[in-house]
Amino acid sequence: MRNLLIIGAGGFGREVYNSALESIGYGKDFIVKGFLDDRLDALDTFSNYPPVIDRIDSYSIKPDDVFVCALGTVTIKKKVCESILSRGGDFLTLIHKDTYISMNTKIGKGCILLSGARIHCDVSIGDFVVVQPYAIIGHDVVIGDWSHINALADCGGGSRIGECVTLHTSSFVLPSGIVEDNSTVGAGSVVLRRVKEGSTVFGVPAKIVLTPKKQ
Fold it and tell me: Could you say which residues are annotated as the site Increases basicity of active site His (predicted)?
């Protein structure tokens, strides 16, 4: 039995905690030990949650510990997870029992798949990817490491989602569309073909509203 620590005790962290209690392996492979958060008082106004045990960087990792990261900003998530990994930490993939996963799907380590997510056939999901409730991942989709697919987002069949991508709530990537690394698709937006690396797009159809900074 391993002890699960949830990194981040904000709103998403509380959501992940509730999902963990209904996830595959809970009570058999792992139990929830508590949270890590730099705000030690993050849960002071809430009840029925396990404690914030320590700050993220100062926590001493124990042999039976295992982690999931409930930080919604992909760049911060990557930095924090890489720090935990460098200190010998291990991450599990958390899959809610109500997640639909079809045949030939590959899912990496450290992922979080929440209630109602729909993962169709022949999909490849990288490491540390979050798929929130009722998001739809169509057939043959590839999602790169660290990306965050928010609730009700839809990745059409054959689409390619790069690393460190955020698809916000109810956004759509049409079949065979491409969202390159480090890009953001705004809520309710529709990607017809391609989002260039580092861009932020919004609207129907999605258009660039913020371009990457030149080095």
Answer: 140
